[in-house]
Amino acid sequence: MRHRLVLLTLFLACLGLPSVAQTAKADWKSRVAETLPLLGHRNWILIVDSAYPLQTSPGVETIDTDADQLAVVRSVLETINSSKHVRPLISMDAELPFVPDQDAPGASAYRAEIGKLLKGYEIQSQTHERILQTIDEAGKTFHVLVLKTNMTIPYTSVFIRLDCKYWSADQEKRMRARMSEANIK
What we know:
Blueprint: H1 2-15, H2 28-35, E1 44-48, E2 60-64, H3 69-81, E3 86-93, H4 107-117, E4 123-126, H5 128-141, E5 144-148, E6 158-164, H6 169-181
Parallel strand pairs: 1-5, 2-5, 3-4
Antiparallel strand pairs: 1-6, 3-6
């Protein structure tokens, strides 16, 4: 009887774990497709290398894709770009341009390929530590979807903060100015 009680307690405890759940590797595209309609501005989608840490903020969901990083970036951007409500704001690690091939074989080739893939996007560069802090903070309030890839080159992660597609920063600024003129705070 006591053994069953311990097993039941462990089972119930597992049900209450935060949303850092692992989804089956083959289902990552489905998970992106089903989650994207729920996401909006201030949510994040991260495509990260295999050593990216598992974060414990309650809003961070991690999926091991076991897929090629460039393929995951391409797929995620296609999904975002076909949405009607969000657009990608992309950040990358400031360290990446300083990773030499002699220390990380393939780093130069990756930089060239990711550069082609992200051509036309404005890329913000921040240190890895600063991006991790930003993601940790965001995960306390907003959903962050982390897609872990099989990449083994450091500082190659692509961090996508979602923004509203149909309302720009300029439109927001003009509206706020009109509100200020009307003394609305």
